[in-house]
UniProtKB/TrEMBL annotation:
Catalysed reactions, as listed in the record: Ca(2+)(in) = Ca(2+)(out)
Pfam family, one: P2RX7_C
Task of the protein: Receptor for ATP that acts as a ligand-gated ion channel.
GO MF terms, alphabetically ordered: extracellularly ATP-gated monoatomic cation channel activity; purinergic nucleotide receptor activity
Record-given protein name: P2X purinoceptor
Membrane topology of this protein: Multi-pass membrane protein
Gene that this sequence comes from: P2RX7
Protein's cellular compartments: Cell membrane; Membrane
């Protein structure tokens, strides 16, 4: 109803004929691509999500020189950290060591807001998240220039903040890890692990991911490199690497395929200037007794945590899923055909409703055209040679020498439908009012509006909405029948030139 170019008569032409162009388009819409997509996406299968468990075993030994300690051999018990989390493992790559700590009293590490001048600046028993101990209430010398509050703590307090560069345990790049991943799909009672039956001990000792993507043994440096990082740089402050194991399994007997795919990604923020606490570190201590006094060596360990994340699904043929997919596909194409075939018709139907709501507008669907010319229309005394219906008039313009028929027969103006749709004054007034609701009704002295409206109705009825830059020609018999119904007072006729109206959204000034 928003397009004033098409009048109420569109519906009758659309109801009487279908769009052959749309039919051809629908016939050309085949479904081989849908069949391929059904097989590719396995829409015929029922799916179940993976249930997984992961265990890891890290291997590697290195010797590193620790500042203030000397050379030290590190094995898996030293660099794996104090505990192992579920589905993850930690490898120490750098360390700050504070030796020979004992319980006692010592000056707090200097900080901007921790310097003091007198004992009044230190509160006895106070502490905060940056404290290494409990304040005693005394202000003591830390060095020649600075004084800090005294604390009860493990002394001497750790003073170094920045990790060593290069990393102390940079050789951890060559360590390896064996990942054992057991999966299960409960809906299908299917169990598998990433160590396949063909993988024996000899295979595991020699396999390399460079030439075997299924090898479950991974070099730490290779995983970091595949994640797009540099191990030597990452080892200084530490970080988090994700090991992604994807299982995409087809459990149908003739297409069975269930193998893991590995990928790697860094999960933490790697740039120090973008985060307050870069990397990953923790502290742990080793205790011993010296002359009956407990001492400890404090380690601030920087390292890389590897998180193993398993996801995936398995599919198996399901007759029910196949029927559902076929039904939904057929319904979709039926909806598409119905929508595309009726998109232009819907406009006509709405206009039909508008027309039928107008008083006095009725169409006799059972009416049939008579076998003779309309009694009200007298045959022209000088019938042109090109006229086949007997109701045309000569014209000086070649393009107006057009008859409604190609062979002898009844004129289209004698059709009851022509009478109802083109010559009924109440209908034409309704169409004019619809196109311009604020226009005054056409009275007897303004029959030109009705006459031109009838011309537009004929074009809509017989041709629909003509394409841009086209000028449909109306048969001579129809033109003279309209002129006789709505004559010009002075007998002069300017002829009819269709003017395509501009939609409101396309108008430059927004005026209709």
């Amino acid at each position: 109803l928003s397009n004033p170019d098409v009048s109420c008569l569109d519906v009758y032409s659309l109801l009487s004929s279908k769009s052959t162009k749309q039919k051809k388009t629908n016939k050309q819409t085949k479904k081989p691509l849908d069949h391929v997509m059904m097989l590719w996406n396995r829409k015929y299968q029922e799916f179940d999500l993976v249930v997984s468990s992961v265990t890891t075993k890290v291997k590697g030994v290195t010797e590193a020189r620790l500042p203030g300690v000397g050379d030290m051999v590190w094995d898996v018990a030293d660099y794996s950290g104090p505990s192992q989390d579920k589905n993850s493992f930690f490898v120490v790559t750098n360390v700050i060591v504070t030796k020979n700590q004992k319980q006692g009293k010592c000056p707090e590490v200097p900080h901007t807001d921790r310097l003091c001048k007198t004992d009044k600046d230190c509160e006895r028993g106070a502490w905060d998240e940056l404290s290494h101990g409990i304040q005693t209430g005394s202000c003591v010398k830390f060095d020649v220039l600075r004084k800090t509050c005294e604390v009860s703590a493990w002394c001497p307090i750790e003073t170094k903040r920045s990790p060593p560069t290069p990393a102390v345990l940079a050789a951890a790049e060559n360590f390896t890890v064996l990942i054992k991943n057991n999966i299960r799909f409960p809906a299908f009672n299917f169990i598998r692990r990433n160590i396949l039956p063909k993988m024996n001990s000899a295979y595991l000792r020699s396999c390399q991911r460079a030439n075997d993507s299924l090898c479950p043994i991974f070099r730490l440096g290779d995983m970091v490199r595949e994640a797009g990082e540099n191990f030597s740089k990452m080892a200084i402050e530490g970080g988090v690497i994700g090991i992604l194991i994807k299982w995409d399994c087809n459990l149908d007997p003739f297409m069975q395929h269930c193998l893991p795919k590995y990928s790697f990604r860094r999960l933490d923020e790697k740039e120090s200037n973008r985060t307050l606490y870069p990397g990953l570190n923790f502290r742990y201590a080793k205790y011993n007794m010296v002359n009956g006094v407990e001492e400890r060596t404090l380690y601030k360990a920087f390292g890389i945590r590897f998180d193993v994340m398993v996801f995936g699904q398995a599919g198996k043929f399901s007759f029910i899923q196949l029927i559902i997919y076929i039904g939904s596909t057929l319904s979709y194409y039926a909806l598409v055909r119905t929508h595309t075939a009726s998109t232009s018709e819907n406009v006509g139907y709405l206009r039909a409703v508008l027309c039928l709501l107008q008083p006095g507008v009725k169409v006799d669907e059972d009416a049939r055209p008579p076998l003779t010319c309309n009694p009200e229309l007298k045959q022209k005394p000088r019938r042109p040679v090109w006229c086949k219906c007997g109701c045309c008039s000569p014209s000086s313009l070649p393009w107006e020498e057009l008859c409604c028929r190609q062979s002898d027969g009844v004129c289209i103006t004698s059709s009851p439908l022509f009478e109802q749709l083109m010559l009924r004054r109440s209908l034409l007034e309704a169409v004019l009012l619809y196109q311009d609701p604020l226009s005054p009704p056409a009275d007897r002295g303004q029959t030109s509006d009705l006459r031109h409206c009838a011309y537009r109705q004929y074009i809509s009825w017989r041709f629909g909405v003509p394409p841009t830059d086209t000028h449909p020609v109306i048969p001579s018999c129809c033109i003279w029948r309209v002129r006789e119904k709505f004559p010009s007072p002075d007998g002069q006729y300017s002829g009819f030139t269709p003017v395509r109206m501009v939609p409101m959204e396309a108008s430059a000034d927004g005026k209709l």
